[in-house]
Amino acid sequence: MSKPDYAVGQSWTYRTRPGEEASRVAIRRIDIEPEDGEVFHVSILGVKLRNHRLPGGIQPAMHHAAVSRASLDASLLEPDGHADAEEHWRDGYDVWRQAYDNGDAGIFDLPLADVLGYIEMVVAASGEAR
Questions:
Q1: What pLDDT score does 63 carry?
Q2: Mean per-residue pLDDT, 26-30
Q3: Best exposed site among 33, 45, 72, 76 by fewest CB in 10 Å?
Q4: Is the dihedral of CA 98, 100, 103, 104 positive or negative?
Q5: What is the full DSSP assignment across 33-67?
Q6: Closest CA to 110 of 48, 63, 66, 61
Q7: Which of 32, 25, 23, 21 minimizes the C-alpha distance to 10?
Q8: InterPro entries annotated for this entry (predicted)?
Q9: pLDDT tens, 1-18?
Q10: What phi-psi label fits residue 91: left (phi over 0), alpha (psi between -120 and 50 degrees) or beta?
């Protein structure tokens, strides 16, 4: 079986968490890194990410995640047109890029639904808002 042709600007359906079936993945950028090979920078839109730091406690998007091809292969289902042109992902990318170049960040190799769960766990562990 051949590898899917993932490209910048695509929107995809994926194996979502329950209750987030309308969520989509937008491929924002693809880098080639010596240590990790292909690194896909994606936004996961239309989610209900628990985040006690925000009013209402829900974050509707994960604007940036750096993931492997294996992560996309395990998650993406069907192309769903073109991604929106929003630029919020660039802030997260810039933070990731600096940390990655310093050896302080990596990439996710998990299905995207598990990435969301992991992020919720990390945010929850950072302490509840007071």
A1: 96
A2: 98
A3: 33
A4: positive
A5: ETTTEEEEEEEEEEEEEE-TTSGGGEEEEEEEEEE
A6: 66
A7: 25
A8: DUF5086_sf (IPR044935)
A9: 567 799 999 999 999 999
A10: alpha
Neighbours of 45 (CB within 10 A): 19
Quick one: pLDDT at residue 3?
74
In angstroms, the Cα distances linking 43 to 102, 106, 112, 125, 128 are 23, 16, 10, 23, 25
Task: Name the residue type at position 19.
Answer: G
Token pair in block for residue 78 = 């069907």
Residue 35, both tokens:
């240590």
Categorize the per-residue pLDDT at 103 as very low, low, confident or very high, splitting at 50, 70 and 90. Answer: very high
Residue type, 66: A
Average confidence (pLDDT) over 81-97: 95
pLDDT at site 1: 55
This prediction's pTM: 0.92
